[in-house]
Amino acid sequence: MREVAAEFANPVMLYSIGKDSSVMLHLAMKAFYPAKPPFPLLHVDTTWKFREMIQFRDETVKRLGLKLLVHVNEEGVKKGINPFDSGSALHTQVMKTEALKQALDKYGFDAAFGGARRDEEKSRAKERIFSFRTSTHTWDPKNQRPELWRVYNTRINKGESIRVFPLSNWTELDIWQYILAEKIPIVPLYFAKKRPVIERDGTLIMRDDDRMKLVPGEVTDERLVRFRTLGCYPLTGAIESDADTLEGIVTEMFTARTSERQGRLIDSDEKSSMEKKKKEGYF
Amino acid sequence: MNAPSDLRQFLDAQEKKSLLRFLTCGSVDDGKSTLIGRLLYDSKLLFEDHLSALEKDSRKFGTTGGDIDFALLVDGLEAEREQGITIDVAYRFFATEKRKFIVADTPGHEQYTRNMATGASNSDLAVILIDARKGVLVQTRRHAYIASLLGLRHVVLAVNKIDLVGYSQDTFDGIVRDFAAFAERLGFASIVPVPISARYGDNVIARSEKTAWYKGPSLLAHLETVDVDTDLVAKPFRFPVQWVNRPNLDFRGFSGTLVGGRIRQGDSIAVAKSGRTSKVKRIVTMDGDLSEAAAGAAVTLVLADEVDISRGDVLSAPEGRPEVSEQFAAHLLWMAEDELLPGRQYLMKIGAASVPVQITTLKHKIDVNTLGEHAAKTLHLNEVGYGNFSTSQPIAFDAYRDNRDTGGFILIDRFTNATVGAGMIDFSLRRATNVHWQALDVDKRSRAEQKGQKPAVLWFTGLSGSGKSTIANLVERALFAEGRHTYLLDGDNVRHGLNRDLGFTDADRVENIRRVGEAAKLFVDAGLIVLVSFISPFRSERRMARELVGEGEFIEVYVDTPLEICMQRDPKGLYKKAQAGEIKNFTGIDSPYEAPEHAELTVDTTTADPADLAAGIVVYLREKGYIA
Question: Which fold has domain B444-623?
Answer without folding.
Answer: Rossmann fold (3.40.50)
